[in-house]
C-alpha cells in the first residue's frame, strides 16, 4: 500500500474518535505541535496523561472510600483530573468530570460514586481507542519497511477501520 | 533577549521601544522571549512548553509556585514574562502574582480552565496583565510578547517624563498592566497608561501634583528596606512619611511609599486568606495546628493563632476565634490554622506580643501579616497599637474572637475579664475597656497573616474600646472582642471573612487606634472601617450568639484587664492548637490559655517569621509593627478556645455566615474587595 494511502488511513482512523466525541480540537492542537523536533509529541503527552490520571483516579477512589465524604477534596481532585483531561482534548471524560463536580457541590455522595464509575468507563474506552490509534500510526510511520510489511500495515489499518465502523 | 540590559540602556534613551543590542536581535523579537511557565499539571506543562517553544520563546517550566518564585528571586531579570495557572496546591497563582507584583516587576499572565468572572476579576485586580482560559491555543500564546513591550514602554515614558527616580531602570510596576487587555494595541497602551496615571494620581495624591511620578520599581532590596522601616516604626506608626525617612532612598517619594504600603497591606490581608497554601509562608508557625484546624481555622485560626501565639491564647480560644471568624474564614476556609502557622504571621506578627507580661509589645508587623492576611493593613498599625494596649494582643484577640459578643453571661464575663485584663494592660489604644483585642485577624477568615493587622486588631479590640478614635473599634466595647477580630477581620480582609462574626469586633472600628496616622492610613487603604462599624453594632449585642462566645473567647470589650496578658511568644505553630482546649463553644472563657506558643512571640520571637514566602513581608512586620501589647490572652481566666479542627466548624461557620450574611460583612467584603484591589495596582 502506498505511503499516502497509509497516512490517509491513519487520518481516517482517528476521525471516528472526533466524530464520536471522544476527542476535541485540543487533540488536533497537539498533533499540530508535533514536528521533526518532537516526532512523538502526541504520544508522549498522552502517556503522561495516562500516568497523571491513573494517580488521580486512585486518589479519588481513596477519597470516595472515606466516610463521611470530603466533597471539597473530591472537587479539588476532580478539578485536577478535568484539567489534565482537557490538555489532551479528552472530551467525554471531561464531561463526566463536570457531572462529578456537580455532584460534589450538591453534596450528593451517591451521585459522586455513580458518576465516577461512569467516568472510569469513559476513561477506559478512550484509552483503548487511543492505544489502537497509536498502534496504527506506528504501523504507518515511515520506516524501513519492506513492501510486505507495508501491506500488512495497510491491512491492519483497514481492519481497524472496519472494527471501528462496527 | 536581554531585556534587562535593554531596559537599562533604555532608561537613558528616548522613547524608542526597540530592543537594543541584547541577546535577541530586535528584528527577531519576540523570538527569544524568556518565559517562565508555572502549572501543577504535568500534561499542561508539557503542552504549554511545546507551544511556547514553537513560538520561538525561551521556556522555563516549573510545577510549583514556590519554585517559580525562588527562580525569579534568584534572577530578577531572568525572565521577561510569567505565565501561571491559577489553581495550584500550596501557593496558588494569585498569591504568586502578588509576590511578583511586589518584588519584581515582571508581567504575569494568569491561566485557568476556570473562566468564571469572579476568578478572572481576581486576577485582574491583583495585577495580572492577562487572563487566558484553558485550553490555551497557539494564537493566544503567540501574542503574549505585547505585555512585555507595553510594560517597557510605560516605564520609559515615565522615565522620560520625570527623570529617573527609582531605582533606576526597573520596569514599571505590574500594576500598570492592569488596565491592559491582551488585545490592547498601541493606542490602548497610551490610553491605559493615562488611566493608570490617573489612578495613580488619584490614589497617590498627596502633596504633589499632577506630575507623574516615575515608577518606582520595588526590588527585593528596596522592599526589604521598606519592610525594615515599617517594622522599625511599628505597624501602627508606619506612615509613609516616616518610612520614607527611614529608608532614606534618594529619589523615592512619599507617594511611592504610600502606594507600596497599601499594596503591602493588601497583600498581608490577602495572604492570610489565601493561606491555605501558605504553608510555606509560615514557617510552620502553627504547624501543629495545621492539621487540626480546618477551613475555619484558616481565617479564624489565623487570627486566633496569632492571638494564641501572641497572647498565648489558649488553643481553644484560637479555635473559637477561628470558628468565629469562620463566618468568613470558614467559607474561605482557606486559611486553616495551619496557615497561620505558615504564615509566620504569628511569629512575625506578634513577635513582641507579650501577653501577660504586661509589656506592650508590638506585634511585629511581620507577623501580622500572616495573621491578618486579609486585614487591611491600615488596621494593622492600629491594631498593633491596640494590641499593645490590650496587651493581650493575641490573647485578647482570641478572646475577643471567642468572646464574640459574649454571648452568655459566662462568656461575657470571661470576655470581660479578658478584655479587662487586656485592656488593663497596655491597651494599645489606651482604650480603657479594651475589649479583647479582637482577633480580627484571626477571625478574619484570613489567616491571620496580617500580623500587623491582627495585632492591631487584637490589640485594638481589647484595648481600644475607647476609641481612641481610631478606626478600629476593636471590640473594645463589646465583650466579644474576639468576635471583632473575626468579624472585622473578615470584613476588612476582603476575603470574605466573616467579620461580622464577632460582635465584639465591631469595636474595632473605632476604637482607639492609637495612632492617628495609623488609623487614617488604615482607613484609607483599608476601607475596613465599614466593617468595623458593623461590628460595633454587633458589639452591642453582646449576647451574640456567636459560637465564639461559647468558645470562651469571649472577651468582653471592656476588658481592660490585662488578664489576658500572656506572653506572646510566637512560636511557630504554637498556636495553640494544641494548647487550646476545645472549649470552643464551651464558653469556658476562662482561660485564655495562650496556645502553646503564642503566636506572637511578642517581642522575642520577633518576627522571624518563617514565612519565607511571606518573605519580605515578614520582615516587614517582623518587627513590631504589630506591637501588640501583649496583653492579649494572657489571661488565665479567659479561655480562649480556639477551635481545634474538631470544632464544629460547620456550626460556627453557619453561624458566622449567617451573621455575615445578614450583615454588611458581605457587602463590606465585596466592597472591600474592589476597593482594596485597585490599590494593588496603585502605581507607586
From TrEMBL, chain B:
Basic and acidic residues bias (residue ranges): 167-180
Domain Response regulatory: 34-149
Main location: nucleus
InterPro entries: ARR-like, CheY-like_superfamily, Homeodomain-like_sf, Myb_dom, Myb_dom_plants, Response_reg_B-typ_pln, SANT/Myb, Sig_transdc_resp-reg_receiver
UniProt modified residues of type 4-aspartylphosphate: 85
Localisation: Nucleus
Domain HTH myb-type: 212-269
UniProt biased composition (Polar residues): 405-432
PROSITE patterns membership: HTH_MYB (PS51294), RESPONSE_REGULATORY (PS50110)
Pfam families found in the cross-reference section: Myb_DNA-binding, Response_reg
Alphabetized SMART domains for the sequence: REC
Keywords annotated in UniProt: Activator, Cytokinin signaling pathway, DNA-binding, Nucleus, Phosphoprotein, Transcription, Transcription regulation, Two-component regulatory system
Location of the region described as Disordered in the Swiss-Prot/TrEMBL record: 161-210, 405-434
Domain of life: Eukaryota
Keyword Transcription regulation carried by entry: yes
Job of this protein: Transcriptional activator that binds specific DNA sequence.
Family to which this protein belongs: Belongs to the ARR family. Type-B subfamily.
Descriptive protein name: Two-component response regulator
Organism: Hevea brasiliensis
Amino acid at each position: 500500500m502506498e505511503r499516502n494511502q497509509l497516512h490517509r488511513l491513519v487520518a481516517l482512523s482517528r476521525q471516528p474518535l472526533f466524530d464520536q466525541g471522544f476527542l476535541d480540537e485540543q487533540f488536533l492542537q497537539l498533533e499540530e505541535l508535533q514536528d521533526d523536533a518532537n516526532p512523538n509529541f502526541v504520544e508522549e503527552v498522552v502517556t503522561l496523561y495516562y500516568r497523571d490520571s491513573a494517580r488521580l483516579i486512585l486518589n479519588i477512589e481513596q477519597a470516595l472510600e472515606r466516610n463521611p465524604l470530603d466533597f471539597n477534596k473530591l472537587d479539588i481532585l476532580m478539578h485536577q483530573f478535568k484539567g489534565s483531561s482537557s490538555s489532551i482534548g479528552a472530551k467525554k471524560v471531561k464531561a463526566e468530570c463536570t457531572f462529578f463536580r456537580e455532584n460534589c457541590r450538591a453534596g450528593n455522595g451517591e451521585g459522586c460514586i455513580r458518576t465516577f464509575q461512569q467516568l472510569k468507563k469513559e476513561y477506559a474506552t478512550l484509552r483503548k481507542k487511543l492505544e489502537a490509534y497509536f498502534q496504527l500510526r506506528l504501523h504507518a510511520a515511515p520506516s524501513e519497511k519492506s513492501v510486505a510489511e507495508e501491506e500488512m500495515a495497510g491491512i491492519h489499518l483497514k481492519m481497524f477501520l472496519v472494527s471501528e465502523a462496527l | 533577549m536581554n531585556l534587562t540590559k535593554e531596559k537599562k540602556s533604555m532608561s537613558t534613551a528616548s522613547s524608542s521601544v526597540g530592543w537594543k543590542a541584547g541577546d535577541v536581535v530586535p528584528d527577531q523579537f519576540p523570538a527569544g522571549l524568556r518565559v517562565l511557565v508555572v502549572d501543577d499539571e504535568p500534561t499542561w506543562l508539557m503542552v504549554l512548553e511545546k507551544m511556547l517553544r514553537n513560538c520561538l520563546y525561551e521556556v522555563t517550566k516549573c510545577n510549583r509556585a514556590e519554585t517559580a518564585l525562588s527562580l525569579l528571586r534568584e534572577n530578577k531579570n531572568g525572565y521577561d514574562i510569567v505565565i501561571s495557572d491559577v489553581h495550584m496546591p500550596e501557593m496558588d497563582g494569585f498569591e504568586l502574582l502578588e509576590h511578583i507584583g511586589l518584588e519584581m516587576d515582571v508581567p504575569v499572565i494568569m491561566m485557568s480552565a476556570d473562566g468564571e468572572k469572579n476568578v478572572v476579576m481576581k486576577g485582574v485586580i491583583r495585577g495580572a496583565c492577562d487572563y487566558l482560559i484553558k485550553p490555551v491555543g497557539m494564537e493566544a500564546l503567540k501574542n503574549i510578547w505585547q505585555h512585555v513591550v507595553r510594560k517597557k514602554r510605560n516605564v520609559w515614558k515615565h522615565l522620560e517624563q520625570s527623570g529617573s527616580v527609582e531605582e533606576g531602570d526597573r520596569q514599571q510596576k505590574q500594576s500598570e498592566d492592569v488596565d491592559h487587555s491582551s488585545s490592547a494595541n498601541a493606542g490602548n497602551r497610551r490610553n491605559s497608561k493615562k488611566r493608570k496615571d490617573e489612578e495613580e494620581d488619584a490614589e497617590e495624591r498627596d502633596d504633589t501634583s499632577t506630575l507623574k511620578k516615575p515608577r518606582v520599581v520595588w526590588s527585593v532590596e528596596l522592599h526589604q528596606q521598606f519592610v525594615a522601616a515599617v517594622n522599625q516604626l511599628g505597624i501602627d506608626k508606619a506612615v509613609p512619611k516616616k518610612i520614607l525617612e527611614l529608608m532614606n532612598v534618594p529619589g523615592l517619594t512619599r507617594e511611592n511609599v504610600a502606594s507600596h504600603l497599601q499594596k503591602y497591606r493588601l497583600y498581608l490581608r490577602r495572604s492570610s486568606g489565601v493561606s491555605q497554601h501558605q504553608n510555606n509562608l509560615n514557617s510552620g508557625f502553627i504547624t501543629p495546628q495545621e492539621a487540626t484546624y480546618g477551613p475555619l481555622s484558616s481565617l479564624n485560626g489565623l487570627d486566633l493563632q496569632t492571638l494564641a501565639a501572641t497572647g498565648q491564647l489558649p488553643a481553644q480560644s484560637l479555635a473559637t476565634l477561628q470558628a468565629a471568624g469562620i463566618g468568613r474564614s470558614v467559607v474561605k476556609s482557606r486559611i486553616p490554622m495551619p496557615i497561620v502557622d505558615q504564615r509566620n504571621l504569628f511569629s512575625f506578627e506578634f513577635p513582641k506580643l507579650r501577653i501577660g507580661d504586661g509589656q506592650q509589645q508590638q506585634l511585629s508587623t511581620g507577623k501580622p501579616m500572616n495573621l491578618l492576611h486579609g486585614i487591611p493593613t491600615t488596621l494593622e498599625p492600629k491594631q498593633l497599637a491596640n494590641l499593645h494596649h490590650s496587651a493581650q494582643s493575641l490573647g485578647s484577640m482570641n478572646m475577643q474572637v471567642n468572646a464574640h459578643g459574649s454571648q452568655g453571661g459566662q462568656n461575657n464575663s470571661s470576655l470581660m475579664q479578658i478584655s479587662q485584663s487586656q485592656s488593663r494592660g497596655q491597651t494599645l489604644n489606651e482604650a480603657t475597656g479594651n475589649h479583647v483585642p479582637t482577633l480580627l485577624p484571626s477571625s478574619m477568615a484570613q489567616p491571620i497573616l496580617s500580623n500587623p493587622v491582627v495585632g492591631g486588631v487584637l490589640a485594638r479590640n481589647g484595648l481600644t474600646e475607647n476609641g481612641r478614635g481610631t478606626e478600629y473599634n476593636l471590640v473594645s466595647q463589646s465583650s466579644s472582642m474576639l468576635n471583632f477580630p473575626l468579624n472585622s477581620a473578615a470584613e476588612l480582609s476582603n476575603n470574605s471573612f466573616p467579620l461580622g462574626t464577632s460582635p465584639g469586633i465591631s469595636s474595632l472600628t473605632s476604637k482607639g487606634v492609637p495612632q492617628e496616622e495609623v488609623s487614617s492610613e488604615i482607613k484609607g487603604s483599608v476601607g475596613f472601617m465599614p466593617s468595623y462599624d458593623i461590628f460595633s453594632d454587633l458589639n452591642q449585642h453582646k449576647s451574640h450568639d456567636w459560637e465564639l462566645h461559647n468558645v470562651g473567647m469571649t472577651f468582653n470589650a471592656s476588658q481592660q484587664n490585662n488578664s489576658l496578658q500572656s506572653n506572646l511568644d510566637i512560636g511557630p505553630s504554637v498556636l495553640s492548637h494544641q494548647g487550646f482546649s476545645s472549649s470552643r463553644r464551651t464558653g469556658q472563657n476562662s482561660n485564655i490559655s495562650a496556645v502553646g506558643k503564642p503566636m506572637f512571640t511578642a517581642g522575642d520571637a520577633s518576627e522571624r517569621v518563617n514565612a519565607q514566602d511571606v518573605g519580605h513581608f515578614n520582615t516587614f512586620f517582623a518587627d513590631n509593627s504589630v506591637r501588640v501589647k501583649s496583653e492579649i490572652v494572657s489571661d488565665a481566666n479567659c479561655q480562649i478556645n480556639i477551635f481545634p479542627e474538631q470544632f464544629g466548624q460547620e456550626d460556627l461557620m453557619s453561624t458566622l455566615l449567617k451573621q455575615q450574611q445578614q450583615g454588611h460583612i458581605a457587602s463590606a467584603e465585596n466592597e472591600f474587595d474592589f476597593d482594596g484591589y485597585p490599590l494593588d495596582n496603585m502605581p507607586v
